[in-house]
Amino acid sequence: MSIIADISEKLQRGRAKEVAALVEQGLAEGIAPSEILNDALIAGMNVVGEKFKNNEVFVPEVLVAARAMNRGIQILRPALANEGIEPVGKAVICTVKGDMHDIGKNLVKLMIEGQGIECIDLGVDVGPEQVVAAVRESGAKLVCLSALLTTTMMGQKDIIDALVAAGLRDQVKVMVGGAPITQEFADEIGADAYTLDAASAAQRARLFFEEGL
Amino acid sequence: MTALEWLRNLPKSGRALPILSSPAATLLGVTVGAMTQDAELQARAMLALAERYDSAAAVSMMDLSVEAEAFGCRLRTTESEIPTVVGALLADADDLESLRVPEVGDARTGIYLEAVARAKALIHDRPVLAGMIGPFSLAGRLMDVSEALVNCIVEPEFVHATLERTTEFLIRYAKAYKSIGADGIVLAEPLAGLLSAEMESEFGASYGKQVVDAVQDEHFVVIYHNCGPNVAQMMDSLTSIEAAGYHFGDAVDLGTMLSGMPSDRIVLGNLSPVQVFCTSTPDTVYAETARLIDACKGFSNFVLSSGCDLPPSTPIENIDAFFRARREFVG
Description:
The structure holds two protein chains of two kinds.
Chain A: H1 3-12, H2 16-28, H3 33-53, H4 59-82, E1 89-95, H5 103-113, E2 117-121, H6 128-138, E3 142-146, H7 154-165, E4 173-177, H8 183-189, E5 193-194, H9 198-210
Parallel strand pairs in A: 1-2, 1-3, 3-4, 4-5
Helix pairs in contact in A: 1-2, 1-3, 2-4, 3-4, 4-5, 5-9, 6-7
Chain B: H1 3-13, H2 24-28, H3 32-35, H4 39-52, E1 58-59, H5 66-71, E2 74-76, E3 84-86, H6 109-122, E4 128-133, H7 135-143, H8 145-154, H9 156-179, E5 184-188, H10 197-215, E6 221-226, H11 235-241, E7 245-248, H12 254-260, E8 266-271, H13 273-278, H14 282-296, E9 302-306, H15 316-330
Parallel strand pairs in B: 1-4, 4-5, 5-6, 6-7, 7-8, 8-9
Antiparallel strand pairs in B: 2-3
């Protein structure tokens, strides 16, 4: 088995230490960092995402695979920088004000990172002003907002309104999700996308950047 | 009639058993936050709902922060929502050494027990069930839900050791409900629904069964709630818990669950608490209720219910529409 295939397979099984060691080995053997990133790490995470959508693996397996990917990325990052390879894009992600639920947000974050997108995670209970500041500071082109409660879902609209007021709305795409969220609600509050699950969110995020944001 | 006979006869009676408690705050003109701190208010809320609706049973508040708080978890409280757990008590197995398994009555568990005792004294025309968390979901709150899921793979011994402690407490807590006269419990395991079937068997069902074995009998039933999306793949494991009733969420097709579960287990569900009850119109609630009744009418073990506990902000007219549809389509 090639190192590339081996990294992908170990990532899918959540073997973080082995992924890190294999990435180091791959770099030492002269494999291009971009090849390790795209053909091993992102490709492996895509397999996990597809299996997750098909109910072949479940949330724990996705979480450990994503952590294995992050270990690989940590090893790879200096080499990627040397090659002048930037992340696919930057996204700001959070659970909105008044809402402490983080598992959905964490899952989306990990899956988005699995697409080679850098995520700035603001955590839970996050207000509009924090999102506006993070977008300004980071130059992120994507904002992902999670809400699990009917009483907090309007927090997504508050953040979109704040991005408009700050003159940043045209610079970013806004994705929303969470148990009470529907496509209809996303349309009402002026979000750019709603997805039902984390794997779809990651694919949609990748599309945003590939479409030339 | 014993509690077990009541539950087994429920499909024939056609009565609905939604997980309905906190919307009563609207009926009483109080906040949900106040209800979470006040046994008398909770009992009055259960009575107000029992007087308004012909639900099959009165169910106490599904406040799944109560048990975690008793273990020492910090909470974030608001007036409009059930409290949520903040942070984690357990970072690794070493932290278990200092983890005290609480006494029944610690923190707000005493309030919730008293609420059910008071409700039993007020409500005589139907059983009173207590809502409580299941062992795995409680372990998730102690170690952070994401970490708990990861630890099932990377540190399974840590998860098992935590589960031993949560199960120990929950058995005592369930026994306390039994001793004050409750007719049963709704044991909520939402987090276990995110596991694979194999992991659910190891970390969910095996501990849920210990609770069932400790308390369930003719006079005290356990309704096992799992609103996760993967329950259709967990039929064997769920059946092994041997709960008298199983309550499923709207992430699954209830017909699939009714087909797969043994016909002597009562299966309850599963109108979406958010998309149907909370954020749609009475007309939609009515139509969706009628649709579910029609879809499940061929199953002798089906009981109409919500897919999870109804959010505090559920409009009363939507709950009215649910019960109106039940009356008109079931009789």
